[in-house]
Amino acid sequence: MDNVKVVSFHKIFNQNAYCIAQRLNTEVVNEISKPILYILIGAHVIPHILVELKKKVNCKFLILNTEHYSSDVMRNKYYITLLKENYVADYNKTNIEFLKQKYDINVLTYFWFEFIQQNEPMMRSIDILFIGSKNDKREKIEKQIKKKYARLNVEFIYPTEYTDITPILLNSKSVLNIPFYDNNTELHRINHALSCRCNVVSHSLGYLDDLYKNFIYITGDDYEPTDVSERQHYQNLIIHQVNTITSHFNWVVSQIIKEI
């Protein structure tokens, strides 16, 4: 598609941006310079610049909101202005409700964090892995897990800057999904781990439990799975999400393009 391009403003979303572009038969670009539709992921990184850039280029934006409603980003006046003045898609039902109630922003559709399926055979030396920002809750769980599984190789990694974690995931057997904010689904972490063929052990995802119950191990606060039956392959999740979320997302994009 020549009249729609995808832009990622943070390296953590580059793989997601690539997958979105592939689904739309377009490409990921590094600049906004034409009066077309740009699908932006990670727009919260430079919202003040994007507000002015849209006016200058006379283009349209579809913002993919990746941030949880508890994040400080949701109180950034430039980011809220960006959302109010453009089309918006979101990954989280609670975010959509928050944006409508708090700012009267209508979210047009869902998107999902798709990752490239990794099929390289790997000798996985890490038994249990967590990667994410540090907070008290995560450090408490780290101590509990390392004490309980003293004989296993347990790694809790708290990076201070972005790094491609795909090689680490490919070296890991199980990944813990521990939310930073209460009620956050952290689907980015889950889907990335599943794409690398890791077992994922997660807190309840609320309304998404029905979708993910056959792909991950849902547990309580102890992060000890009670259901240890074999999980379904990530490819099955891709098929489901493409048939539901992606199909509607692509339809919304086509309707926006008609307005250009």
List the helices and strands and how they pair.
Blueprint: E1 4-8, H1 14-23, E2 37-41, H2 47-57, E3 60-65, H3 77-84, E4 87-90, H4 93-103, E5 109-110, E6 126-131, H5 136-148, E7 154-157, H6 166-170, E8 172-177, H7 187-195, E9 199-202, H8 209-212, E10 217-218, H9 234-258
Parallel strand pairs: 1-2, 2-3, 3-4, 4-5, 6-7, 6-8, 8-9, 9-10
Helix pairs in contact: 2-3
Q: What's the CATH C level of the largest domain? A: Alpha Beta
What is the count of distinct domains?
A: 2
Q: What is the name of the CATH architecture of the largest domain? A: 3-Layer(aba) Sandwich
Tally of strands: 10
Q: Could you list the spans in which at least 5 consecutive residues all have pLDDT below 50?
A: none
Task: Kindly report the spatial arrangement of strands forming the biggest sheet.
Answer: 1-2-3-4-5
- Coarse morphology: globular
What would the average pLDDT be, to the nearest integer? 94
**Gyration radius, to the nearest Å?**
19 Å
Q: Strand content of the residues, in percent?
A: 15-25%
CATH topology of the largest domain: Rossmann fold
- DSSP helical segment count: 9
The percent of residues in helical segments reads 25-40%
Description:
This protein has 260 residues and is of the alpha/beta class. It has 2 domains: 4-111 and 241-258, Rossmann fold, CATH 3.40.50; 126-229, Rossmann fold (3-Layer(aba) Sandwich), CATH 3.40.50. Helices cover 37% and strands 17% of the residues. It has helices spanning 14-23, 47-57, 77-84, 93-103, 136-148, 166-170, 187-195, 209-212, 234-258, and strands at 4-8, 37-41, 60-65, 87-90, 109-110, 126-131, 154-157, 172-177, 199-202, 217-218. Strands 1-2-3-4-5 form a 5-stranded parallel β-sheet, sandwiched between helices. A 5-stranded parallel β-sheet has the order 7-6-8-9-10, sandwiched between helices. The longest helix is centred in the C-terminal third of the chain and has 25 residues, at 234-258. The protein starts with a strand and ends with a helix. The relative contact order is 0.13.
